[in-house]
Design brief:
binds glycinamide ribonucleotide; Rossmann fold; two-stranded antiparallel ribbon; 36% helix; alpha/beta
Length: 207
């Protein structure tokens, strides 16, 4: 059984997609051991509570340094025998120590086709605002392993989504979630639970 720690900051729709995926059998042999939010009152915490999942708020504001904050999270995660950390809309930048500690065992969902519209400053709605500003016709979502950089780790799975002429950032965000994020994140978790994801020379493959 693969045990997950899901880290969240806000809406929790990707967390909900994981919960639903486990319930429906799309994600097999997997359970959520813990949800951590950096924000008090995040809707994602309510989703976790409703599903009867252990959920904590660990705020960076309560710690003197990023390292101390990350260490507090590591302690909570490691107590629970977690095999995979999932960043599901987690908007805090993690230390190199944290990403090294979970090397090959930490994934992120990003709302664009990496390497476009990613890196520092590209998160949440901002990604879709930039996509519309640039006028690209295809965007999408990416699930990737997390390394010490921002959105630089090996890409596991991507799905394209069309940009429509009348899109607002909010409409586009929703379409990217519905047509890509909520599908590929559960798919990757199921693949990892069944040992179907490999990394060779920094390139990830689903086999
Ligand atoms: C999602 O679109 C996710 O891809 C994005 O934040 C949103 C969170 O929504 N993540 C990033 O931008 C990370 N760089 P959710 O809380 O409803 O899952």
């Amino acid at each position: 059984m693969l045990r997950l720690a899901v880290l969240v900051s806000g809406g929790g729709t990707n967390l909900q997609a994981i919960i639903d995926g486990i319930e429906s059998g799309k994600i097999r042999d997997t359970e959520i051991a813990l949800v951590i939010s950096n924000k008090e009152g995040a809707y994602a915490l309510k989703c976790a509570e409703k599903a009867g999942i252990d959920a904590l708020c660990i705020s960076p504001k309560a710690y003197d340094s990023g390292e101390a904050y990350d260490q507090a999270m590591i302690e909570e995660i490691d107590q629970r025998g977690v095999g995979l950390v999932v960043l599901a809309g987690f908007l805090v930048v993690l230390s190199e120590e944290f990403t090294k500690h979970y090397a090959g065992k930490i994934i992120n969902i990003h709302p664009s086709l990496i390497p476009s519209f990613c890196g520092n400053g590209y998160y949440g709605l901002r990604v879709h605002e930039e996509v519309l500003k640039r006028g690209v016709k295809v965007t999408g979502a990416t699930v990737h392993f997390v390394d010490a950089g921002t959105d630089t780790g090996p890409i596991i799975l991507q799905k394209p989504v069309a940009v429509e002429r009348d899109d607002t950032p909010e409409i586009l965000q929703r379409r990217v979630m519905e047509e890509a994020e909520w599908l590929i994140l559960p798919e990757v978790i199921d693949a990892i639970a069944h040992d179907r994801v490999r990394i060779e020379d920094k390139i990830a493959y689903v086999i």
